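Dear colleague,

Following up on yesterday's call, I've attached the two folding results inline so they're easy to grep. Please treat them as preliminary; we haven't cross-checked anything against experimental data yet. The first protein's sequence and structure tokens come first.
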Amino acid sequence: MVDSKVMLAHVLNWLIIIVIVTVALLVGRDARKKGRSWTGTIVWVLVSIFLFPIGVGLYFFLGRPQGRSHAADDQV
């Protein structure tokens, strides 16, 4: 029988992995919408993965391009 603490640790590990992947996808999607190149997008996704959660904060407070997105241009 599996110990309940071990089972809880497995569940928490999977939840953390899911959150990291989800955040990386959101950062990548936002970077592309804001007009970053593919190289820049990949760099920010890797930073957000490897420095999670600090990398996500760095992107949204320092690295995120300012101004309108391409999606906003389509709606005008």
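Below is the second protein, in the same order (sequence, then structure):
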Amino acid sequence: MARTSLSLRGVAVTAAKVAIAVAAFAWLVGQIDVERALGALGGLQPGPIAALFAVSIAGLFARFYTWQVTIAPVQRVSVRTAGSIALIVNFVNQLLPSRLSGRLAAPFVLRSQTGMAYTDAAAVSGVHTGIYALLYGLVSLVGVAASYGQLPFGLVVVVGLSTGLYLAAGVFVLAVGTNLQFLDPLLAVLTRVVARVPRVGERAAERIRDLSSGTDASAATFRDLATNPRVWLGYAAGWAVTLVLAPGVRVFLLLASFGVAFEPVVLLPLYLVTAYSVTLLPLTPGGIGVTEATATAVFVALGVPAEVIVPIVLVDRVFGIYLPAVMGWYPSTRLDLAAMSVD
């Protein structure tokens, strides 16, 4: 009965989140003249279209590079392998409520794609997540500061909260990852309690002891990666191209196609990072709908007409998030499930 109740609650929560996403998209569509928007997008010249695709491809390979540079100190991997990992993790991110929650599957994806030990895979994915969150929080904070006084108070609260969560998540992951020995006392108590369970207790306790020894190895790898300047510099470069440069250029080109100027243009990429920060809030799967609605509200407050920014944000999200997520479906079907266990 309890299990049924939990199952029904889960279905209800999922249905509510999907409803929020649908409502957000309905609101977005209601803000624009669809025919005019399609006409403006269809009127793009070959030059801007080529630039749009070029910068999107560059952003995609930069995303691959963030994984390659993080994995490299542990194990050499090809661009193709790093790309498969990046695409699969992005695919999973769109299925779960929060972008960081999707990272929980990353160690298993890494293990399947590279064959590395689970302890190393957990360390690599943890460092990747921690640096991602910290960089996102810092850049988004600059965007919040730059837009202060231009955004409505409620919107400042939303983007400020999500920015703060990114910063907190980054600091927490990096701090805990380098000090996993803090978990040892808890695991020791858990081992003693589990060992008293009849028949299966000793076997379960042995698995916990294995986990405890694994945390030492994982923490050592984590510390090596988290203190490696090459990892930080390489990751930051790839991250900047993926999440700052590529979206900024895409939106700039699309604004120009609508005949709308944005000043100062140098702040455009920072505002985009801030506007998209709500993907961390577990409101809808992958932040779908809510992210686009929030970005629209931010840019409308900054002076861009809603009928212009809505189709632009949708196109940018398709190129930057949804298309790579769809691309991640195929490599995800080829995962080695046997290799995805902790053993």
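For the second protein, one point worth flagging: DSSP finds 14 helices and no strands in the chain.

Best wishes,
A.L.
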